[in-house]
């Protein structure tokens, strides 16, 4: 009789992280598109690419959530065979969608950088080569999903396991590693390329901080791609549970990429929000009302009064001096 398994499912963490990142990136992309259209400017290729990446990420998340409803994220010993089959089918579909969405996010970054340095012939050539590599890498990895095993339903249906004809494990791993290496290298390169021209500009400190954050996000995406590959190419005793960790890293990789691709385009949006807040606080509210609001938000202590504090400080100074 099999011993009981202490199941600590990673499903809730997977769903919670996925929903949070989905809402965050949806808001950022919506702000990006709204800002672009409200300014009277047409959508550029980088806008269209990131919008499509975000739209594709939604059905991907839906399939992931559906998989967790069948026990995805738990140890395979505690999940029935029909549930494992249903969960793995959903993850198979989500993975195919992920290939397209993460590629589009990176293409968006290249197109955005291309629009900033369109006068440089070398940069134009490099950008088109980078886009070509990203799109060409998408073709073999997608075909691998459907052609590596025939029928490809073997990925979720154990009933056809003995009838399936598959490529060698080395061939499949080579395709996966090649795609992951391209993804990781593109994250690193796209994170560091802005240094070639941004360091020459006399930017304010806050903009340098933002650039540093964006570079950090790119390197984080690269790290998740490497971790996902290392975990995926080493088969373990419980790949049903391990696949959930890989899926979580894939979600983080995708949404971090979308965030990094979107934040540079939202400078005008954030500045407009700040101006609106300042105007709102000055024109529509008195100083006392603004202070009361800040106290409610926990940004000021209750009973805060700068005039009273000033008097107390002066009196303290007099008493100590006297």
UniProtKB/TrEMBL annotation:
Subcellular location: Membrane
Keyword Membrane: yes
Pfam assignment, any one: Fung_rhodopsin
GO cellular component: membrane
Membrane-spanning ranges: 12-31, 51-72, 92-116, 123-148, 172-197, 209-231, 246-266
Subcellular location, principal: membrane
Highest taxon listed in the record's lineage: Eukaryota
The entry's keywords: Membrane, Transmembrane, Transmembrane helix
Membrane topology: Multi-pass membrane protein
Rhodopsin domain: residues covered: 31-270
Similarity remark: Belongs to the SAT4 family.
Annotated PANTHER family: INTEGRAL MEMBRANE PROTEIN-RELATED (PTHR33048:SF129), PTH11-LIKE INTEGRAL MEMBRANE PROTEIN (AFU_ORTHOLOGUE AFUA_5G11245) (PTHR33048)
Name the record gives this protein: Rhodopsin domain-containing protein
Higher taxonomy: Eukaryota, Fungi, Dikarya, Ascomycota, Pezizomycotina
